[in-house]
Design goal:
The complex is a heterohexamer, with two copies of chain A (about 120 residues), two copies of chain C (about 120 residues) and two copies of chain E (about 100 residues). By secondary structure, chain A is of the alpha/beta class. Chain A has helices at about 15-30, 60-70, 80-85, 100-110, and strands at about 1-5, 35-40, 75, 95-100, 110-115. Chain A is globular and about 35 Å long. Chain C contains four helices and five strands. In chain C, strands 4-3-2-1-5 form a five-stranded parallel sheet. Classes of the chains: A alpha/beta (about 120), C alpha/beta (about 120), E alpha/beta (about 100). The interface of C and E includes residues 19, 21, 60, 61 and 101 of C.
Chain lengths: ~120, ~120, ~120, ~120, ~100, ~100
Amino acid sequence: MKFGILIKESPYNFQAFDTAYNFVKAAIEMGHEIIGIFFYDDAVYAGNKYLEPPQGDRNIKSYMDDLKSRGVRLVVCVAAGKRRGLTQDTVSESAEISGLGQLLELSIESDRLVTF
Amino acid sequence: MKFGILIKESPYNFQAFDTAYNFVKAAIEMGHEIIGIFFYDDAVYAGNKYLEPPQGDRNIKSYMDDLKSRGVRLVVCVAAGKRRGLTQDTVSESAEISGLGQLLELSIESDRLVTF
Amino acid sequence: MEDQKSKAKIMFLCKTAPYGTIYEQEVIEAMIMFSSYEQDIRVAFIGDGVFSLKKGQNPSLINIKNFAQTYLVLIDDFEVSHLYVEKESLDERGMKEEDLLTEVEVLQRADLISKIDEMKVVLPF
Amino acid sequence: MEDQKSKAKIMFLCKTAPYGTIYEQEVIEAMIMFSSYEQDIRVAFIGDGVFSLKKGQNPSLINIKNFAQTYLVLIDDFEVSHLYVEKESLDERGMKEEDLLTEVEVLQRADLISKIDEMKVVLPF
Amino acid sequence: MQMLNIIKKSPYETSSLSNCLKYIKTGDVILFTEDGIYAAKKGGMFEKFVSDVSQTCSIYYLFPDTEARGIKSDEIISIAKPVDYQGFVALVANSSKSITW
Amino acid sequence: MQMLNIIKKSPYETSSLSNCLKYIKTGDVILFTEDGIYAAKKGGMFEKFVSDVSQTCSIYYLFPDTEARGIKSDEIISIAKPVDYQGFVALVANSSKSITW
């Protein structure tokens, strides 16, 4: 089955990213396809390349790299990102910046869209 | 009277920064002293120099510059900032990065501490 | 005109009050973008979301843009096929239909549940 | 020993459940820092904050650190003078004193209100 | 000296107001700001709670926030008094401390 | 086909659960995740609401989240069934759509 993922809450401050990460890994292990993760509202902060959590803390940047290495597209909303300082200067290599059309595409193309 | 300010919520996503900004301006106009604003939790994102809101939107970066020009110290928590990508590479000129000791100092030295 | 059945039915479920959070602002940005792709886009206001339709909003004192104006043109100028507002949510908040800034379809909760049931995707904001 | 009166009375008011948000983690970082400055630091758990003291926490499956261990040493190793937990908040959540991971002062709400009243600063988390 | 209680979240969506009401003492002050102002709206679900607590406490609301949301003065319960940002500062100055719920 | 309702916020602090319960239909599914799991705790304030809705709906909770918070299986109301992340994925796959409240 094809899944689309929408994350809306900021990483670290909320558990949404962590839950989505574990959900996506489980879905892939079960043979499902993740056609993309769209980061909107405060969730765009997960795409920042400067994240430096202390040792032993959750490492959102390495989670993003892990998802990317599993072939998952990580799309940060350009408009939500710009006002929050997420631009070509600050976006991590794993993530790409694109428009809300990508969220619409996930809504249309996925069999299930799940919001975190 | 000496006021200390603590902001905890992320800018744009919540109104906390906006309310604090208007509060601080009013306090200064009334002759009070703002001995510092401490940014903790997701509020540290206000110190990002890359914020680029669209025209007509709230401009948190210019609000920060305005506060700084009024002599207000803007202190971003180093630990909360690091995990969120707010480092010497990304912090705006108006803000400084420092430790939680600064929040304690605001708690001790201010006549009133207000949380937003 | 396209066959209605080929369009994806997508609902924005607006359940948050305006200004205190950014959700209303960013959901409007999403509505406008979605509506340009010729899908079947619905918008439902429930809970505190009904406050987004209150008339007489003037956020100039808090330096925020008046996003509510956009609702006036969503159906006419954009391809949003329906704006629903829930009767029960209005009642709980002491609001009447004449308190709203534009004409929307006021639905009973039971009818809104049926609408939600028809959707392919529901996006909560 | 310093004169108690020269110390600022500061209370961390912990009212949020652990893990779902970062508040517990970041308030602990603040408690540890504050406690090294020889002030009069109190910590009160009310509302969902009492869940932070639940024993048997094991966040390894969600890849988050077990911050609760810190509470075991706050009073002994750090200069936190009192940890309070509110009886009514425990009751509402079906929790008993023996469900807590460490010994804390269980206070009735009325007594906690008196403690809050004595503080110079209350920091809500 | 009275304590200032700041309610900034909607009472319909969060427990901010109900938490505050559990801790408030006679003589304390409540200020509704941001989405908290809906608590003071006439005809809403919280009108009675706010009227009740006004017997022993003073109730204020931040006028720029009601104005922003299209809530006119006559839609606010009459025992609540408007303040602007300077009034907010004065409330803080005149209280021994504040708690933001 | 049933709809999946995801509750991730504490019922004590937010209206997520009460909002969800207003829209749920017979045959729908509720999954408690993150701080939402406290709704399914025995002896808590929401035990009765969740038991009532279980007459017409299936109730699940995300086991890693109860484990994290020190809530043992025997502290969860018995009509609620545990799932891991794969179980969560299966619930989504087996529902026509999901709403995160």
